[in-house]
Amino acid sequence: MNIHLQEEPGFFVPPELIEGVRAARRIVVLTGAGMSAESGIPTFRDALTGLWSKFDPQTLATPEGFKRDPALVWGWYEARRRGVMRAVPNAGHLALHDLSTLHGIDGLTIVTQNVDDLHERAGSRQVIHLHGSLFAPRCLACGRPTEHVEQDAAGLKDDGSDRAIPPPRCQHCGGLVRPGVVWFGEDLSQQEWRQALERVREADLLLVVGTSGKVYPASRLPEIAENNGAPVWVINPDPDLDVGAWAVWNATAATALPALVGACIAEKG
């Protein structure tokens, strides 16, 4: 099924998708950069502004880059983390939480390629971070997690977020603390990947939201769902997105997901 549905006045919600959501018991939502972009969070490459515009992403987002200049890399990730702290979940994030509370859906799992915490701040509890998190730093030497010192996002000053910042030291072994994200050349966390595979194999509906679904290995998940008999729906505003035979709804997450939840509630009533 290759359905391309455009946004229309009154915002038409595909009846096949409404039916699929209402019938589903185990929904998995794969989210990407487009989901967070609507909260004002720049994509990975768009985050290379100011001081960081002088560098190639693969210079900053690699183990080699961190070993070569840990203060430069830590400073960039701190700038990104502080930007996320200022952002708020958009209507799409909130709608996914609402979707998980609908009667009849025993489980909704979000598998995200994003490294922010907007899904959690929107209330979602079952979130698998394939690419790690800006809020889960760990020691480069011993691998133990390290807590960030929480700060009031409204009180953060921009003059400290666009510069190299020496990373903190591990309280256990004294090693350098690194960002808790997956860098170029690194494998995904096996625990997170196994959990994602398990949930996708059990799913009876997969929603792919705000991502092209082309980044490996996350790109395998829609195919795995389809092979296990689960419908795959792509929600993305790009009408030229090539997703093969999957159903496509050309709409943004912040508009489509609340409309979908509202339609499911109306159908239920």
How would you describe the overall organization of this protein?
With 269 residues, the protein is α/β, with parallel strands linked by helices. The protein has two domains: 1-40 and 89-136 and 188-269, TPP-binding domain (Rossmann fold, 3-Layer(aba) Sandwich), CATH 3.40.50.1220; 42-86 and 138-178, SIR2/SIRT2 'Small Domain', CATH 3.30.1600. 35% of the residues lie in helices and 13% in strands. It has ten helices and nine strands. The protein has a seven-stranded parallel sheet, with helices on both faces. A two-stranded antiparallel ribbon has the order 5-6. Strand 3 (107-112), helix 7 and strand 4 form a beta-alpha-beta unit. Helix 1 crosses helix 10 (253-268). The chain is elongated. The two termini are 28 Å apart. Mean pLDDT is 86; it is low at 1-9 and 150-160.
CATH architecture field of the largest domain:
3-Layer(aba) Sandwich
Shape: elongated
Please list the strands of the largest sheet in the order they lie side by side.
1-9-8-7-2-3-4
* Overall pLDDT score: 86
Compute the number of structural domains. 2
Low-pLDDT windows of residues: 1-9, 150-160
Q: End-to-end distance, in Å? A: 28 Å
Main traits of this protein?
single chain, 269 residues, alpha/beta, Rossmann fold, SIR2/SIRT2 'Small Domain', seven-stranded parallel β-sheet, two-stranded antiparallel ribbon, 9 strands, 35% helix, 13% strand, elongated
